[in-house]
Amino acid sequence: MAKITTKALEALRPSDHGKRIADGDRMFGIVRAVKNDPEAVSVDFEWRYNFASKVRQVRIGAWPRMTLKAIRDERDTLKGKIKDGIDPLAEKEADRLKKQADQIEAKQTQIDRLQELAAKDARMTVRGLFELWQRTDLKKRQDGGSEALRAFEADVFPLIGDVAAADVTKAHIQRIIDTMLSRGVKRMTERVFSDLRQLFGFALDRDHIEADPTARIKKHKIGGSTERERVLSEAELIEFFKLLLTSGLNKTSQNALLISLSTVSRIGETLKAHWHHIDLQRRTWTQPELSAAGRFTKNGKRHVIQLNDIALRAFEALHQHSGLTPWVFPNARLNGPVDLKTVSKQVADRQRGGSEPMRGRTKQTNSLALAGGKWTPHDLRRTGATLMGELGVLSEVIGRCLNHTEPTKVKRIYQRAQYEAPMREAWQRLGDRLDILQNKPNNVVTLGRAA
């Protein structure tokens, strides 16, 4: 039987699809039209052979991916294997099964490795947790976290550095505090405790631990500065609204304070607000989880605030001023938000009493002074939250409005109630009450506050 020639193969056309052509020595090819190419064809070659008294058939290869000579050489190789007692078809199947087994083994090895890493990650030591925190969050500090590292090397790592973070208890934290206080370094103790709380809050957010060991330790009880508990009374809020108009504060800063009070947001989060996250039609302000500019919220969690009338009016007034920029409170260069300490400094300047005006600062050094003593923008957030409670809002809902992180993993996962509706109601109640205090103070009977 005449053998096929390359020239004959090249003369084949798509119309020959399915045609069987013999090459002699029990090898033949089947013509296949090539998809997506109306002028091209391929030829699949197979070879029949006898092995163990059985007729078998094995695929050799396809032309033109393989040359005709290479196809014949492959057939001759298979002939040699038969002479050596090897069945080419069985060998091919064995190779396929081995490859499949290798893939399964490689996949299982990868799974085992990932499980090993997950287990190791779950048992991350305090030192390892600190290193992760330093690479991600702590490096954003002005000193890159070097001061915190120095303090931890001196007072934390010697006691719990090699302890798994998940095994750290309140007793461990208390021991660190007691050891430092015994040296009389109260301010340093407070700073280290603050960093420990941030570290374990970071671990809690990433599920490295199930409960925060610092949660039940009160910062103001460890010997540092007294924790602020300033809450403006309703009588002071009435006065606050009046003084704000004559304080000399620019309208932008006035609106920042009103937003912070009526939404119970932190002043820093307020000043970082981005117009892209504010929907005046739907009356929502979304503080995203993360952005190119870093965290918008203290705990890095997404937070959606429902704007009551006071907050909405403030944002609408600001939109007329800065609506063409990305930022609600843009800096002078329009490339970011204002300094986050700006409003706090302005408020402090207007409560310095009879002291001499500072050069380049306001001369109205008493224009925001209230009867209950000095206050800060953060006290407005606390005041708004307290007022919510006095208006009958549940503490769990107030915590959600404040965007606090639940310290216990079980509650975060298994008791994750949907608080959207109660939160909207809470902001609405707060806004309605503030609106009365601002616009109808003469008709208001102020709420009594529990002792």
What's the topology here?
Blueprint: H1 6-10, E1 20-24, E2 27-33, E3 41-51, E4 54-63, H2 68-83, H3 88-122, H4 126-136, H5 146-155, H6 157-160, H7 170-181, H8 186-205, H9 234-246, H10 251-263, H11 267-271, E5 278-279, E6 284-287, E7 303-306, H12 309-322, H13 342-349, H14 377-390, H15 395-401, H16 409-414, H17 420-439
Task: Offer a quick outline of the entry.
The chain has 17 helices and 7 strands.
Task: Describe what you observe in this structure.
Helices cover 47% and strands 10% of the residues. The protein has helices at residues 6-10, 68-83, 88-122, 126-136, 146-155, 157-160, 170-181, 186-205, 234-246, 251-263, 267-271, 309-322, 342-349, 377-390, 395-401, 409-414, 420-439; strands at 20-24, 27-33, 41-51, 54-63, 278-279, 284-287, 303-306. Strands 1-2-3-4 form a 4-stranded antiparallel β-sheet, with helices on one face. It has 451 residues and is an alpha+beta fold. It has 3 domains: 6-86, Integrase, DNA-binding domain (Double Stranded RNA Binding Domain, 2-Layer Sandwich), CATH 3.30.160.390; 126-221, Orthogonal Bundle (DNA polymerase, domain 1), CATH 1.10.150.130; 234-443, hpI Integrase, Chain A (Orthogonal Bundle), CATH 1.10.443.10. Helix 10 packs parallel to helix 14 (377-390).
